[in-house]
Amino acid sequence: MLKIRELLFVSFITWIVVTKAQTDVRLPPSITRSPKAEFIYRRDERIPLECQATGTGKLQYEWFKNDGQMNLNDLSQLEVIGDGSTVIIKSAGKSDEGFYQCSVNSAHGKVLSETSYLQLATIDTGSKEILEQTVLEGQPFVIKAQPQKSFPRPIYSWETAKTIEDTQPQRVPLNKRVQMDEFGNLYFAFAMLSDSIGGNIYKLVSFNQYLDQTLGGSYTRITVTPASLQSFAPTLAFPSLVTYVGVVGRNISLHCFYSANPEAQYSWSVPNHMLRTPEYNADKTRLFIRDIKPTDQGNYVCTASNSKGTSQQTLQIEVQSAPVFRQPKDRPQNVNATEGQMVTFNCAADAIPEARVVWYKDGVVLDRSNMPRRMHFSKDNRNLTIDRVCRDCYNEDRRTDLMVVQCNVSNKHGYVLGSGYLNVLVKTVVTAMSEDRVEVKPDEVRTVTFQCTATSDPSTPVGIEWRKINPNDPDYDYPVYPDNRIIFVSEGQLMIVVEQNTTDKWTELMGQYRCRANNSYSWDFKTFTLVIENVALPGPRRAGLDQFWWIFLILALLLLLLILLLCCCIYCQRNRGDSYPVDEKERNNGNDPERELKDKGFQDYQRPEGQPLRGSRGSLGSSAKMNSDDEGSLNEYGDVDPNKFNEDGSFVGVYANTADRKRTK
Q: Per CATH, which fold does 326-425 belong to?
């Protein structure tokens, strides 16, 4: 028996993991790589569109252009790599512009990738007509830029040239007298004769960075008519806009320019709450803010001044943002739920202005008019809730709740796509494989075996742990650790080995044991009981008075504090002294102590040179008697012995002693 016990003891484990064969693992597809959000291409360029996903089962890729499914069999235009996760447009042209998106299907759901927008880079040749423009010396003027089609938007500059075909043009410098606005228009604060440039022409230069191509246009010849120059105060030339929209994370520039003679000097004031210093160009006509933040919102004042005056223009920046998920919990997450649970997907993106939320289930748009059973939106459309999820749904419009859930949040500045899946798992259930109650005799030699197994979702391993219930608190249990009497073996067995004449040990081991199974998503348990013949199981201990000693201690302390407060009140009452109604008597006699004090202040007592006044005492040795009817008699102030004055003529302390004697009588 001992050898068997030792052999079993060596083989114990405290946590038994019963690993099921991971068959029928069902994970919906999930996008791991989407095609590039924006793709600018040159004519005849090869364009790769890539999409990758993970999931169980066979994954099928489909591609869509402008919501229509692409024909991947058209090998004259397309090249399909592998399983269709990558598609190459062989020679892209104007007709290939548009929105592209891939979807990935499996037996467990369907997911959409982010959208990719393809656009052809172009720049069109402008008109070569030369415009004539006459201006008066000293007056402000502007050379208008003629519209020129280009994508992406070109970078503008101005040059002067002898002819349109001149291969050595000269760049027009920008300064406090000459500036160009964001549309390419060239402004002059005041005209000078030199602006005629000897009959040469001005031309607008447009540079397309993507194509690395430069084209000229807006050819203009300026003739300046001589006139007497006159100074004038700054007058706003541009901008005409006073409110600008800045998008979080992007850059913005504010530009202001004034017509003035002499040319204006520029300065800027920014909002007090701005947390950084903006950048400026050399002449301070332009202010730059990079990587806009919400704290950059506010009013910016451009000030122009010269010897003739000062002028100001207030430009306002309103900060907005494209939709963005601030935290992972704000977007749909992958959820493994157990049958019967309620699941909620979040889609709470921050955006200014407010964004529109569109939900998808397996690539199909969801709206309130066609919501499947047990699914509903929150009032603000930011949450999608599914009640009582089921792995195998019967008598419903869908066979399973295994699905891909996506939400698209968009406003005029952009969009963000959130994706998650719902995987429904079978509940974990414990099944007993042995008796759940065993009774033994006190002197019996026996090995007691409790055995349980558990079932759970085939895709998850289940662990079994043995715990002992606290007899004093059935809601609490604690792990059972092996010793020379308790041995664990595989497959959820708990073996208890006890030798003869060990009644005390049996008593220690008797009670309730709990087999607890858990697969990290759901759990279940089964209770087993070990009892000894003619010995009652320990039960919950009833609460006695000894368990509430701390309550009695608190009450005793409160009572002691109350007694101390009462004693303090009595002591203060007895030793507070009596009041002297001198002030009241003085007022009744028509005197005003406050006024006398204000007029005369405190004065030393002067002994009278003549006879003492009637009713007063000239000295301590005087034999004059005090008459209670005399004016000013101290008898009016209470029971005072006139013979009890101090040497200095006062009766301080005498009255108090008299009062004390009265109390003792």
A: Immunoglobulin-like (2.60.40)
Q: Is 395 exposed, middle or buried (0-12, 13-18, 19+ CB in 10 A)?
A: exposed
Number of H-type helices and E-type strands within the chain: 6, 49
pTM (2 d.p.)? 0.69
Cα-Cα end-to-end distance for the chain: 98
Instruction: Classify domain 122-225 at the CATH topology level.
Output: Immunoglobulin-like (2.60.40)
Other Cβ atoms closer than 10 A to 457:
25
Using CA atoms, how far apart are residues 318 and 246, in angstroms rounded to an integer? 6
Kindly report whether the peptide bond that precedes residue 234 is cis, defined as omega within 30 degrees of 0.
no
Domain ranges in the chain are: 2-19+428-532, 34-120, 122-225, 232-322, 326-425, 628-665
Q: Which of 329, 321, 326 shows the shortest CA–CA distance to 383?
A: 329
Within 13 Å and on the Cβ side, how many CA atoms surround 136?
5
Q: Mind listing the pLDDT tens digit for each residue in 115-170?
A: 999 999 999 888 899 999 999 999 999 999 988 889 999 999 999 999 999 999 99
Evaluate whether 122-225 and 326-425 have a shared fold. Answer: yes
* pLDDT average, residue stretch 564-591: 74
Q: Evaluate the CA torsion angle 643, 646, 651, 652 in order and state its sign.
A: negative
Q: Which amino acid is at 104?
A: V
β-sheet bridge partners, residue 363: none
Q: Which fold has domain 2-19+428-532?
A: Immunoglobulin-like (2.60.40)
Q: Which of the four CATH numbers 2.160.10.10, 3.10.180.10, 2.60.40.10, 3.40.50.720 does domain 232-322 have?
A: 2.60.40.10
Closest CA to 582 of 645, 634, 637, 629: 637
> b/e for 340-366, b at 16 or more Cβ within 10 A?
ebebebbbbbbbbeebebbbbbbbeeb
